[in-house]
Amino acid sequence: MPQDTAEDIASNVLLHYEGAGIARARLWVQNAYRDLTKRRLWSWKIRRGQFIFPAAVNVGTITGTLGSDQIVGVGTAFTASMIGLQFRVPNVPIYTIKGVLSTTLLQIDQPWGSTTLSAIGYEIFQAYVTPPTDFEQFLSVVNPAQAYQLYLGLEQRQLDQNDPQRTNAGSPYVVANADYSGFSIGTVGAIIQTRGAGSVPVFGGGYTGVNQGLFTVEITSTGDSGAAQFKWKKDGGAYTSGVLSSSTGTNLQDGVVISFPAGANYVNGDVFSSVCTPGVGGGLPRFEVWPHVKVNLVLSYIYEAQAQDIFDPAVTIPRVVTPDALLEGGLAKLARWPGPSVEEKNPYFQIALAQAHENRFNYLCERLEQKDDNIYPSDVSYYRQFPYYETTWRSADWIQRHA
To answer: What is the helix, strand, coil percentage profile of the chain, to 5?
Structure first.
């Protein structure tokens, strides 16, 4: 038998007073669901994920100019995949790469604050990680390669006390609260040929703009890759003209890259466009993984997800949540609402009745908690020596031999 949907439950609330309207009924049922989700760590809110760290990049040298947000490279090979990673040179703050303008030009998230430094070494690596959009809190973070669990809950000020210059690198054992990400990486839409019938270039990269963007490219001289020229613009801005096509890719703006595969004929006057969509990661919490990772590494993690909007068409009510519990929660809120106006009162409005529905809601929630404990006993805690990343045992074998 199929379970009632959120719309079914809201409609059942309206059976007791249609004058409340479907919008209020949905809000009451959604709020009842949120109240339920806050009662415990439910099994259906547990998710898994992984952070994949790339190896550090340090090929070539760079120049950083005081007050500029652009880093100029010599002998570098910057790519759009570096957007969101961290950039630094010794004794200079860590910056986040906001854009890759070319293979020798980076845009960082803040102006260069040090004195102008020329032809110096650098590193690009990942110091910060951003969890999924439904993230509520970490439950554990594990280094599977070296078989230990990382320590959670540290703050930036604690890392600043121990390693203010962030010179430590190697196997990480701390995931510290950092800040909230200021930008996100979205998607570059499929290329559309709006005029002409010549060969088609390729749009790629990761879009870092905060609003949807339309990129337009027009071929201005016919030829193969490396010979044909083009001009481009974003939205209604001015064209950037006289750009030479390249098979290795040309960075346009906000992380968007266009490349012209070799062995093709790109025709003067042909026009192409791509609609780019911003990501949803902006404003998500960021965490610093310390010591900093400079080699390929994967960390797996378990986290608690936020409560979803059960009226979203893509969302279904978790199987263990019974509709009658949400109905009681919705009716409790209906019974506390006096009505839309003094002249039009809610006949279901009665504080004693609201309390009765709340008592019934709490009872049904407790029953659901008992049922969920059979799946995931979240109320159970285990003693572990602090800090647990320094304990002598590192595997299940130790537990088995000392049970």
So the answer is: 20, 35, 45
Q: Is 2 helix (H, G, I), strand (E, B) or coil?
A: coil
Residues 304-315 as b or e (16 or more Cβ within 10 Å = b):
bbebbebbeeee
Which of 220, 161, 232, 224 is closest to 196 using CA atoms? 220
Using an 8 Å Cβ cutoff, are 268 and 195 in contact?
no
Mapped onto helix, strand or coil, the DSSP state of residue 328 is: helix
Give the total residue count for the chain.
403
The torsion region of residue 147 among left (phi > 0), alpha (psi -120 to 50) and beta comes to left
Looking at the predicted structure, is the pLDDT value of residue 26 above 80? Answer: yes
DSSP, res 43: G
- Higher per-residue pLDDT: 200 or 377: 200
d(CA 246, CA 79): 14
Burial class, 356, CB count within 10 angstroms (exposed 0-12 / middle 13-18 / buried 19+): middle
SS3 (DSSP) at 23: helix
Backbone angles phi, psi at 356, to 5 degrees: -65, -40
CA–CA gap between residue 296 and residue 306 (Å, rounded)? 30
Q: Any idea which residue has 């800040």 for tokens? A: 179
* CB distance 318 to 191 below 8 Å: no
Give the β-pairing of 151-154 and 174-180. Answer: parallel
Helix (H/G/I), strand (E/B), else coil: 192: strand
Would you state the pLDDT for residue 380? 60
- Between CA 48 and CA 302 the distance in angstroms is 5
Whole-angstrom distance, CA of residue 375 vs CA of residue 243 = 60
pLDDT tens-digit readout, 160-186: 998 999 989 999 999 999 988 766 778
With tokens 């100029």, the residue in question is 72
Cα–Cα distance between 311 and 302 in angstroms, integer?
Answer: 26
Phi, psi of 195, deg, nearest 5 = -155, 140
Neighbours of 172 (CB within 10 A): 24
Residue 84 banded pLDDT, cuts 50, 70, 90: confident
Residue 398, SS3 per DSSP? helix
Per-residue pLDDT tens over the stretch 348-358: 999 999 999 99
User: For residue 339, what is the DSSP state?
Assistant: -
